[in-house]
Write a structure and sequence with these properties.
With about 250 residues, the chain is mainly α. It has helices at about 1-15, 20-40, 45-70, 75-80, 80-90, 95-125, 135-160, 160-175, 180-185, 190-200, 210-215, 225-250. The protein is about 80% helix and about 0% strand.
Amino acid sequence: MRRVAAIAANTFREALRQRVLYLAVGFMLLLVLAALALSPLALGEGPRVVRDVGLSMVSLFGMLLVVMVGTSLLHGEVERRSIHVLLSKPVRRREYLLGKYAGLLCVLATCVALMSVAVLLVDLWMTRAWHPVILLCGLGTLGELAVLTSWTMVFSAVASPLLAGMFTLGCYVIGNAVADLRDLAAMLPSGGGVLVWLSYALPNLFLFNFRPQVAEGAWPEPGQLGLALLYALLYCALTLTLANALFRRREFV
C-alpha cells in the first residue's frame, strides 16, 4: 500500500503542476456570470435554475478533467519512458495502475469539492439560506466520476490518448442515458434482451444524478446515496480488475 500511496501522491502533484485547479477557478467565474445572467430571466426561479445549472456544470467540468488528465496518465510516462524505471523496481503493475487511479481520484475530489462549495456560496448569496444538500450532490458527482475514471483506465491501457478520450466521452453520454436505453429495450418486440444486458454492463451514471431534487432544495430519498456509492465501489472494483488484466498484457518498447 505504501507504493500505491507514493504513486498516488506523485500523480496528484503532477496534476497540480499541470494547473488543473484553474479549471475549478474558471468554473467559479462562469457560475457567477451565469447567476447574474439567469436570475433576471428566471421569473422568480433564479436560485433553482442556478442550482440546476451549477450542479450540471460540476459534472460536466469533472468529465472534462477526466478526459484531459486521465487519458494521458499512462501514455505520458510511456512516452517519457519513465514507466520502465518504475516497473523495473519492485512495483507491480496493479499497484502502479491503482496508484494512478487513486491520485486522479484525489484530484477530482479536490476540484469537485471546490466547485460544489462555489455553488453553495452562490446559492447562499442569492437565497440568504444555507443548503448543505448541495455538498451531498457533489459527493454523488464524485461517485459518478469515479466510475467514469475506472473506464478511462481501461481505455488508456489499450488505446492512444485521443481514442481513450473519445471512448470516455462516449461512456459519459451513454452512461447518463442508460435509463432511456432500458425504456427503448422494453418497447422493442425482439432483441430487447441484448439492450437490457448491455444497459447493465454499461455504467449507470444516471444513478448518481441527484440534481433534480437538489435544485428544488429537497434531499435525495433515504438510501439513494448509499446505493449509488455502493454501486460505485463494486463497479469500480470490477472495471479496475479488467484494466489490470489488459495492462498486464501490454508490452512497452
